[in-house]
Design brief:
Number of domains: 1
Number of strands: 4
Largest sheet: 4 strands, antiparallel
Mean pLDDT: 86
Helix content: 25-40%
Radius of gyration: 27 Å
Strand order of the largest sheet: 1-2-3-4
Oligomer: single chain
Order of helices and strands: HEEEE
Strand content: 25-35%
Amino acid sequence: MRKGLTLVETIIGTIVIGIAFYLLIAVFITLAPRTARVETLNKKVYLAQEKTEEFLARNFSQTASVGAAAFTGNFSNFNYQIVVTYVATADLNTAIAGPSSFKNVKVRVWGGTVDSAGTVEIVSLVTSYEVK
């Protein structure tokens, strides 16, 4: 009865393990760029939600459009824009020229180092309704 492995068995085992590691590395290399794009998208959504909440905390009369501007700090490579339009009471998606009790607020965020072309947009509605 023989003990241990022969040289041929050891070489074949090493080749099989090498091929398996190569396939694992190939999978991780293809997933890395996707992960970076998803991370950039998550940052854009977070920043858009933050600006939306900050903006909606204002009074109805203080909600006005904000031109394109950059975030500060660690997010300085991201930009945002806030577009406020009056909307009709009957159709909250139709912009009107004059004042009404409803405003449509669109917050757009774009930029980043990986997927700078993609834009995230959050749309919300503000009303002048006050509880008495």
